[in-house]
Amino acid sequence: xxxxxxxxxxxxxxxxxxxxxxxxxxxxxxxxxRHLHAFAREVDLKPEEWxxxxxxxxxxxxxxxxxxxxxxxxxxxxxxxxxxxxxxDRRAIEAGTKSSLLGPFYRSDSPDLRLGDSIISNSRKPExxxxxxxxxxxxxxxxxxxxxxxxxxxxxxxxxxLQDPSKMDLRGRFHTDAEGxxxxxxxxxxxxxxxxxxxxxxxxxAQKRHGYRPAHIHFLIGAPGYREVVTALYIEGDDxxxxxxxxxxTESLVVGVKQKDPNSPxxxxxxIQFGFQLGELAGKAETGRVGADPSQIIxxxxxxxxxxxxADSSH
Length: 315
Ligand SMILES: [Fe+2]
Prior knowledge:
Oligomer: single chain
Bound molecules: fe (ii) ion
């Protein structure tokens, strides 16, 4: 009979899981157990620390609602979401715009708008134009590409964080014209502190981190036959551009606001120009979304469905 000790326990657990029919589930779970066990051995994890971890993860789950996703925030603040993005980008067969975080504030049902429309739900000023083209790897415009955009307001709040989160503001879905052009009006966002009133906030404070994200605008861009791009544009000059709490900023996604740009499609307003590039899709569509609408995650948190889905993907 096997003697269980701090080393043999890993093989014992792996042995029991070795008959998992789904090969990917088998691979992922085996690696998870190996690394989880190695982590506990490395830090010589104490029972009370293990319990603290369980309490923390329980609190993270309890903080999640259809409007808030504390687990995505945890993944983001650990650099895990950025890592998943980087791995996803590496699998591309053609270069595209670099990924950035989807974050916890994406909603799948943002309003359809026409090019040139404003995403501001009231008449706040001053407006800024954001414009550019969506092109393929050869630089040819991608017509009718879907361009979803969402951002915080000039005080750093997303609509999901305000009084009535069922009301939408500062988000919309556009479609590029025949030349791949997109343009819309908005307010320049400011940086914001991630939600600090939950367990992730407690963690950030315990680590003496500032908790800020530099000002940014989220984009989700897709077209049939192309790899979807999940990214964000970061406004240059922000105090936290070099120390984003969730590691979303990368140099190629930093943009400036121009006061007088002769190329802007709407004259008389400051503007931000950025061109997005979509790489060709290799075979089956693979989502690049490190995140989801919080309401969909809550809806999927049914153990029976998760098991059924894992069984499905083994075929
Ligand atoms: Fe954000």
